[in-house]
Amino acid sequence: MHPLEGQRVVVMGLGRFGGGVGAARYAVKHGADVLVTDQLNEKQLARSLSELRGLPIDYRLGEHNVSDLTRADLVIVNPAVDRRNNPLLRAAEAAAVPLTSEIELLIERLPQRGRTIGVTGTAGKSTTVAMIGHAMAACLGASRVHVGGNLGGSLLDVVDDLGDEDWVVLELSSFMLETLGNWSPHIAVVTNLSDNHLDRHETPDAYRAAKQRLLGHQQTGDFTILGETVADWAEHTPAKVTVVKQPLEANLLTPGEHNRLNAAMALAAARCAGVPPLESIRALEQFPGLPHRMQFLCEHNGVTFYNDSKSTTPASAMLAIDAFKPGTLHLILGGSDKKADLSALARHAVRHGAAIYTIGQTGPAIAEAATECEESNCRVHRCETLEKATEKAIAAATAGQTVLLSPGCASWDQFENFEQRGRTFAELVIRFTDNE
User: Fold this and answer.
1) Does some domain include residue 3?
2) What is the pLDDT of residues 368-390, one digit of tens each?
3) Whole domain around residue 277: which residue ranges?
4) Confidence at 272, pLDDT banded by 50, 70, 90
């Protein structure tokens, strides 16, 4: 009999992007009486609800009710919900109702801690996880390597079928780590650390402490891979430590020194897992990038196309720009107005780009700031829509140049999310290059 069978399970926080979907499915599969509760309404949660259609689940949407939680046998809490400061969860704990999360349920059920890799950090963790998974799958077989956590779908969907020879690679956010129990992965990877999520953690020290939980229960015989900015974390683990300081010198499809550093971290982790370095490097050279994160789309008539729709801040767009040779970029910028100062991004773009194509609410402000820069011959085109910008960029770009969508802004003015924006860009590239 499964521990969840016959239990009253509440999934608190389904989430727009399905953070509670895997947990709800898993609980239903194993015979629990499941209630999903979320402050958002049915329309706002349509995407996540569609993944649960047809399952015997009760819903309370648009609000939470404290009695749902206090009468439950188990509450599975979405990582986006802050357990420490939530009065509903305090009430559940006072009623002796245990709290858990999707990642805790998964870890409790993994067959082999010795075949786990956990990755955290402020930047680069998603790409590093994907690179590790890609390299290991190429060398060991895709059926033996499973990537999950904060990246991709829930591994609860497959955990019952995992064998002792399978590897699990997890991206672990600070939200996931702060409530993790007495567990650390066999191979721990920390890419870097800078202030982030202080609205949740309140202080840099608290944020750092959450990240360091990844190492807190490692054992002698385990491995830790650290980026240079967190090299001093070696004192927090008895594991064998490797500090990665140099980018991987390889022909990657994902451009930029930051991606070569991610690849070096991935190579080190795969080596600890027993994958020969030369095989890993060959696989990493074929890694196309995560969708919407400096993702290589195609090459057409000598022009390369990259989708970096996940770039929703000026800083991330400037990092993307720096990955390419100055003067070769046809850069699409702009989107929803979050009241950020875009002048530095505009100046950086004109200094490094061949042409700029502005879109969305922030397009006029970026174009205005760009045209005020007199130190560059970069052309500025006010395009308004992504379709018009893509068409003009493809028409203007020549062999050896790159068309890059790295908006530096959110997508909500014209798209549902950055994923839809990125998919639309990829479709437009195919349409307009096919017509040439």
Assistant:
1) no
2) 999 988 667 899 999 999 999 99
3) 105-284
4) very high
